[in-house]
Amino acid sequence: MHNIITGVDLAKEEIQVCVCKRNKVQSNQAMTPTEFASWLASSKPMTIVFEACSTSNYWKQKALEFGHDARLISAKLVASVRQNQKTDKNDALAVAQAAQLTDVSFINGKSKEQQELQTLVRLRELAVKHKVAVQQQIKSLLLEFNIRVSPSQGGLSGVVEAVLEDAENGFSVVFRQALNTSWQHLQQGIESIKQYDLYLEKAANEHETCKSLQALEGVGPLNAVNLYMALGCGEMGQFETGRDASACIGLTPIQHSSGGKVKLGSVGKYVKNNMLRSCLVSGAMSAVNQAMRRPAKTKKEMWIQQMVERRGKRCTAVALANKTVRTAFAMLANGTEYKAELLAA
C-alpha cells in the first residue's frame, strides 16, 4: 500500500472522498462524478479503496488506468467499522479505516468482459422471475373460478386454451382478451429465456475459461459462467482454497466451533448468492440422474452411484456440487484442464 490511503463512498450523484496520510485525515470532501474523474487523473499514485457497490467496478477500472492502487472492500466490513451515525463522511472515513485493518480481505473487481457476462446472467435471472410470477398469477386467478391446472388437462397451456375456446363458460369478451394478453406475455417471457440461453451458450463457448469449465459434470454454459464469475474474478472475495470458495457458496456444513471443539451443522441454504448455489445443485442433480441410468464409466460416476446408495440423490447432488466448485477452483488457480478419470477395463 502507498502512504496515502483514500476511502471512497460511492453514490449516483455525489462521491465522498476521504484522504488519509499516516493515520490522519487530510481531507474529506464530496465531489460530483465528473470532478472525481478529474481528481483521479490529476492526483499522484495512491491507494484508493472503494466500498463495493454497483458502480465500484467502473471506478476501480478508471483508477487503475490513472496508475492508482485501486481496491474494493466489503460493505459489511465497512458498516462494522463505521463510528457514529451513518453519513457520507463517516462512511468514507470507515472505508479508509477498514482498509488498514490487519490481514483484511479485499474483493477482486471485474473487468468489462466479466461485467458483460454478469449482465447476461442477471438478465436471464430476471426473465425467469418474471415468467414464474406471471405463470403463478394466471394459475391463482383461474383457481378463483375453481379452474384447476393439472397435467391431465395439458398443463397451464391446455387449461388456458380450453377457457378461451369454450364459448359457453360464461366469461365475458373483455376477460378473455385480458387472459389472452397475459398468456401471450408469458409466452414472450419463455421465448426471451430461450434467447438469453443462446446468448450465454455463445458467450461461454467463445470464452476459453468458460469453455474448459463445461467439461465438469453438471456444468453447462450457465454454470460455467457462474463459476467463472464467482471464482475467476472473486465476486464474493479472494479465496485461498477451494474449500473456502465452496463454503462461501453454501455447499459445506456450517461450523459452530468454540473452545477447541469443532461442531459441524447442516449445509447452509441461506447464502449471499443463493441463485448460484441453486444452479450448481440443479446441474449436479442432472448429472446424478444421468449417472444412475447407465453403468459407471468413470471413477466420478462410480462415486456418485455409491453415494446415492448411502445417502440418496439430494445429498449426492450437494456433495457433487461441492466437488465441482473445488475442482473448478483448482482449474482456475493452476490453469489446468479437467479430464474425467476412466475406470480400468
Automatic annotation (TrEMBL):
InterPro entries assigned to the protein according to its UniProt record, in alphabetical order: Transp_IS110-like_N (IPR002525), Transpos_IS110 (IPR047650), Transposase_20 (IPR003346)
GO BP annotation list: DNA transposition
A Pfam entry, by short name: Transposase_20
Domain Transposase IS110-like N-terminal: 7-145
Residue span(s) of domain Transposase IS116/IS110/IS902 C-terminal: 211-293
Signal peptide region: none
Single GO MF annotation: transposase activity
Coiled coil: none
Protein's UniProt name: Transposase IS116
Organism this protein belongs to: Alteromonas mediterranea (strain DSM 17117 / CIP 110805 / LMG 28347 / Deep ecotype)
